[in-house]
C-alpha cells in the first residue's frame, strides 16, 4: 500500500486557527444527501408510495450494513481491515436461530451468548493483529475461513432453523408509528458517532491510525486499542447477524457473505482512506445508507439482475470518483 | 531454473515461498501415503486440474498485490470469461477465437481497473468492488442462468495428460511460471517491486508508478480471463456464479505463498505453491477420511502457519545479515 500520508498529521496544526469544524463533515454530508435523493427518487418511481414509508423501508434494510460497517470503519481507521465480518454475521445468525429453534424460551441467554461468540472471534482477530503481529488482512481472512469451517461442523445436516418469534417480531414491530429497527438504527448511529468522534478513545484511534510511530511515542496503549477495535468489529457483526436472522426469520450460514464487500465500500464511499487515520462514522453511515438506497431504487426499476449489477457497480465507481475529486480540491 | 530462482531470491529475499514449497511437499507426502493413486498420472492430473484455476487467477492477483494495490474484480472477469466460453466456443468463433476474445475482455477490464486506480488515484480496495459487481452483471446478461456448452475438444484436451506422462494442467501452471520468470527480469518486473515497496522512491528514480500499476492490472486481467478459460474447460459449461467463492482463496494463495499484501515482497512462484497447498490439503483430508468442513478450518490455520514461519525465517535472515554487517 502507499506510504503513509504524513500531511494528514500536519494539517490540523496548520489549520489551528480555522473554525473547528471537522473537514470530513462535508463529504459525509454530501453522501448523506445523495442517499436521501436516491430515496426520494425511488419514491417517485414507485407509484403509490410516499416518502416516509420508503425512508423507513430503506432504513430497516440498511441496518445490517450500517451496524457491520461501524466495525469495518474502525479497523480501516487503524489502517487494518476485517475480512471476517461476512462469516461472523452468518455464524451469529445461524447460532441465534439454531439455539432458539423457533421458540422464545431461550432468547434471554442465546442473544448474549451469540454476541459473546461474535466478540470472541473479533478478540481472536485483535490478539492476532496486536500481539502476534499478523497483518490484519491475513489474520481476519484466516480466522474467517477457519471459523466458517467450525460453523459448518456444527450445522452439517441441519436444515434452516426458524428463529425465535420474539426476534422476528422485534424486526417488524413499530413504536409510535416508527419501526423498531429504525429506532435501534438511530440509537446505534448516535452511540457509534459519540464513541468514534466524541470520546478520547476515539481520538486515540485517529492518532494511532494516522501514525503508529507517533502513537507509540505518545505512549498510547496500542495493543489494547487494536484488540478493542477488532473485538468491537466482531461484536457489531454479531449484532448485525442477530438482526438479520430476525429480519429473514430463518438463517443460513452464508447469509452474511454478501455484506462483507459492501462494508468496505460503505466506509470508503463515506470518505475514509484504507491506509487509516481518516474518516468519520457519519460518513460510513452515509455510505451504508447510500448503498442500501441504491439497492432499493435498482430493485424498484424492475430490471434484470445483470443490468442492476452493472448500474450498481458503475454508481459505486462514480461515488468514489466524486469522493476523490473532493479530496484533491480540499488538499490543493 | 534453479539459477534463475537463486538470482530472484537474491533480488528480494522472502522465506515465504520456500516455506510454501516445504508445506506443499509435506502435505503431498501425507496424501500420497494414505492414497495409493496420489502418485499416479491419473491422481496427479486430478490434483492439478483442481489447482489450475486458482493458481492462474492468484498468479495474476500477485502482480497487482506486488505493485501495492488490491483487486477484488477477478471473480467478475472469471465469470465473464466462463459465460463467453460457454456461449461462443462451440459456434462460429471456435475455441481459439473464443480464447482470444476472452483474453481481450480480461485485458480491457484490467485496463479499466488500472485507469481508475493508477490514473484517477481511486482506492483499489473499494473501486474494484464496483468493477467486480459490474462484471458479474455483464456475465449475468450474457448468460442469465447456468447452461451453455464449452467446445468438447478443449474440454478433453486440457483436462487430460500429455502422452500419459504430464498432466496438461501442470504444464499450463509451468507455462505461467515461465512467463513470470521472464517477466520478473524485465524492466516492468523490477519496477513492480520498486513501486510496491515505495512509490515515491520509485518515481524519484525515474520509474512511472502509474504505468507500472496500469500494466500490472492489465496483465492480471488477462490472467483472470485465462483462469476463466481453464475453469470452462473443467466444468464444460457456463455458470455466471461459479467463481463467487474463489476470491478469498485467491488472497489466501497469495498470502500463503509469501507475498506481502502491503506490496513489494514475494512473487508468483510462491503463489502457485500457495494455490497448490490449498488443493492438495483438500485431497489429503479427503484421503484421511476427514469431514469436509475440516478443509475450511485447516485452510485458515495453514495461512497463519505459513505466515508465521515466513516471518520467522525472515527475521532469522535479518539477524544473520546484521551479524555479517
Task: Name a few traits of the molecule.
heterodimer, A: 332 residues, mainly alpha, ABC transporter involved in vitamin B12 uptake, BtuC, two-stranded antiparallel ribbon, two-stranded antiparallel sheet, disordered N terminus, disordered C terminus, B: 325 residues, 2 strands, 76% helix, 1% strand
Q: In terms of per-residue confidence, which ranges of chain A show pLDDT below 50 for 5 or more consecutive residues?
A: 1-19, 328-332
Query: Quick one: overall form of chain B?
Result: globular
* Share of helical residues of chain B: over 70%
The share of residues in extended strands of chain B comes to under 5%
Taken as a percent bin, the fraction of beta residues of chain A is: under 5%
Main sheet attributes: strand count, strand direction, barrel closure of chain A = 2 strands, antiparallel
CATH topology of chain B: ABC transporter involved in vitamin B12 uptake, BtuC
Largest interface: A-B, 51 and 53 residues
The major sheet of chain B is characterized as: 2 strands, antiparallel
User: Shape of chain A from CA axes?
Assistant: globular
CATH architecture of chain B: Orthogonal Bundle
**Count of folded domains of chain A:** 1
Under the CATH scheme, which class of chain A? Mainly Alpha
How many beta-strand runs of chain A?
4
